[in-house]
Q: What sequence folds into this?
């Protein structure tokens, strides 16, 4: 059974701080890793994808992947109240041609306090 | 470009009834995946379709079925509804990024079974 684990939180950080969100996955052969942001009552929005070990930066977001430790993280710099949401970690669950099956963690709820 | 569209937005059904949910992927995307998200959990994979063929199926009972049409739109059907089928049903359109695939979600259909 392939699993993705996240701390459910809530994680509370002050405005302007760095928020650090973590995720571990069980299947060593996983190849694609994603972070989605989900506001209350809305659908998930893709904010980062990462496929190789190391860091990937996009604006205030940095995704970090360590395949040896089966660990993915998301850093949000200069956190804003508008970043308050649930962050979902997802890993591809199908290694065939279509890769249309994502396995999600339960999500970490982030609260950024003004 | 228009994103993923889903209809209806909300739906209330009674136990034992049947429901059909609809999805249109992003223009040019040929693959659609369906997910179920219950409150407090991450989305759970139901089906994936690519070029009208089923490419993956999650751990859901046979009451759940789907199909994809020549224009790549898709329907998810659920028969004999149970209270536990109450959830947000998400459709995702898959975009190929090199050798990897990214999924973009529609707004979802919130199904309530009474």
A:
């Amino acid at each position: 059974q392939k699993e993705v684990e996240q701390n459910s939180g809530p994680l509370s950080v002050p405005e302007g701080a760095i928020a650090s969100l973590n995720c571990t996955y069980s299947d060593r052969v996983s190849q694609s890793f994603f972070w989605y942001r989900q506001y209350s009552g809305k659908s998930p929005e893709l904010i980062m994808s990462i496929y190789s070990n190391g860091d990937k930066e996009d604006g205030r977001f940095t995704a970090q992947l360590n395949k040896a430790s089966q660990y993915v993280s998301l850093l949000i710099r200069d956190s804003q109240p508008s970043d308050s949401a649930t962050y979902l970690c997802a890993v591809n669950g199908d290694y065939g041609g279509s890769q249309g099956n994502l396995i999600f963690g339960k999500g970490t709820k982030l609260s950024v306090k003004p | 470009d228009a994103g993923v569209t889903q209809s209806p937005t909300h739906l209330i059904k009674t136990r034992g009834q049947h429901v059909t949910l609809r999805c249109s992927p992003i223009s040019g995307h040929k693959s659609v995946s369906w997910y179920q998200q219950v409150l407090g959990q991450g989305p759970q994979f139901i089906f994936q379709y690519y070029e009208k063929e089923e490419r993956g199926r999650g751990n859901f009972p046979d009451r759940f079925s789907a199909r994809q049409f020549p224009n790549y739109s898709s329907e998810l059907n659920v028969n004999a509804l149970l209270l536990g089928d109450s959830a947000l049903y998400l459709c995702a359109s898959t975009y190929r990024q090199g050798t990897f695939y990214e999924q973009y979600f529609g707004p979802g259909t919130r199904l309530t079974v009474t």
